[in-house]
Target: Chaperone protein HtpG
Amino acid sequence: MTQEKGTISIHTENIFPIIKKFLYSDNEIFLRELVSNAVDATQKVKRLASLGQYNGELGELQVEVAFDENAKTITISDNGLGMTADEIKKYINQIAFSGATEFMEKFKEAKDANEIIGRFGLGFYSAFMVADRVEIQTLSYQEGAEPAHWTCDGSTEFEIGEGTRTTRGTDVILHINAESEEFLSKYKLQEILDKYAKFLPVPIKFGTNTEQEPDGEDADGKPKTKDVEVDNIINDTNPIWTKQPSELKDEDYLNFYKELYPFSEEPLFWIHLNVDYPFNLTGVLYFPKVKNDFEMTKNKIKLFSRQVFITDEVKDIVPEFLMLLHGVIDSPDIPLNVSRSFLQADSNVKKINSYITKKVADKLSDLFKADRAAYEEKWSDIGLFVKYGIISEEKFYDKAKDFVLLTSTEDKKNYTLNEYKDKVADAQTDKDGQLIYIYTNDPAKQDAFIQSANKKGYDVLLMNSPIDNHFISHLEQKLEKTSLKRVDADVADKLIKKDDAPAHILTEEQSGQVKTIFDSAINKPAFKVELESLNPDELPVTVTMDEFMRRMKDMAAMGGGMGFYGNMPDNYKVVVNGNHKLITRILQTEDTAEQSRLAKQAFDLALLSQGLLTGADLTEFVNRSVSMI
Model:
């Protein structure tokens, strides 16, 4: 073979600076690209042999990664197809050409040839992110082929000539540049291989390990061992998502979960994905114990393409609410950009998105129907997930409305939406026919309000997850003639408007006098005093915030797009129960100072019940209480 020089065929004067700066988001993926190419070449020769297109000995098919710290090289070797000099010119020098195109055309009649796609081209040139010179030593599988050697220094010029390889396959040798010498480390390379190549379908060798094997017996008849060097194979070539569910036991799924997330609690349950039409998708999705820490659990789904790790940012593939799941998705139909790091939304992605949503909803529905008691035991863990799905995905709501649960603070039981409506409809429908659900987000803090509601025969729901404000608003949109009010949004008599309101016992003049006394005693513009005729057994004074305003402020605090309300000052309603005996006592007291003191004491008690009494006001209240004992 004659030595030949030439220039790489590209459509821009120098593509290498572009590759280094723009096309790849992370320079460590050079190893992923080159190992993936080697795996593809290995799978191709195996496929050709199965089709009768290659009759030679396959041998032990594997890819090897090696490095030489002194020579400053990293070598990726395979015993796959190899290339001729002409193929190098075609597949390597013509950057935009994919070697898979011709290969797929030739073998398109093969039943599953679609599973093999070559990735020559730009992926190969990721090598120049870390190397200032790259060599290829290769020998094609074709009978009579001669070994070829290609080298390039990162410019558009290359040399190609006779190679030294004597066996089928390819060596890609990277001469690492000064800025990238961190990669000349066993630990660094092992870390990258563990990340990207952990489940590749061809064995990946990286150095050796020392193991002990039996070595006869010593003079006393005790067994001896000796150290032996064995290949360090870093990957599992047949992970569980490539198998049929019928082949697997619960133990297999749990062991795989521990392998992916060694420091996590066991998952609640899982879904095995396996579909080949109208798109290809396999994987296993696990339901973790999320509780209220859902932000910390995101980005735990790993995306693979033919067992090559791509990314754990799968928001374009997986609906937002499913980001709470853990596990693996593998699909060759997901379009990837040149670096495979960012996903592009297209019709296949949308189909996959919808399919996963349906599978998750079906799984939860099946669990609920098959064993409701077991489902309810898990509700504290999966409730947040289900509510998140209902809020963010319309198709999920259509199914989830039958298995989302509402929890009563009174009997601690869980109810479906229809069950809860039947439970409270008689007592909690107002005079206009509106059904009112009452809830608490802090049972301990709002206990006095809960007890007042219970006395009137009202049930109070527990709504204390981080997203319940949004969930509540969503329910109001979905449930006919239904609204939700927090139990401390008003006094119990006013939470649900009825026609049987207690009669006033104060005259109009007395009402005005009481309002003046409380306005003067409170003397805070943010607190608006209103006199109401309530049950005499209710508290003398109650401080509330309007349900709408408080909900908007809570959403703003969560970053829910309600910033306008979040910036507004807090305003409260001070409801004075004109029918309470304390109000009568205040009116009967002739000492205006004593009137003010009693009014302030009742107001401070109301603030205390809401956790609003702090600082100097709290100290003053304590001192006043002591003096009144």
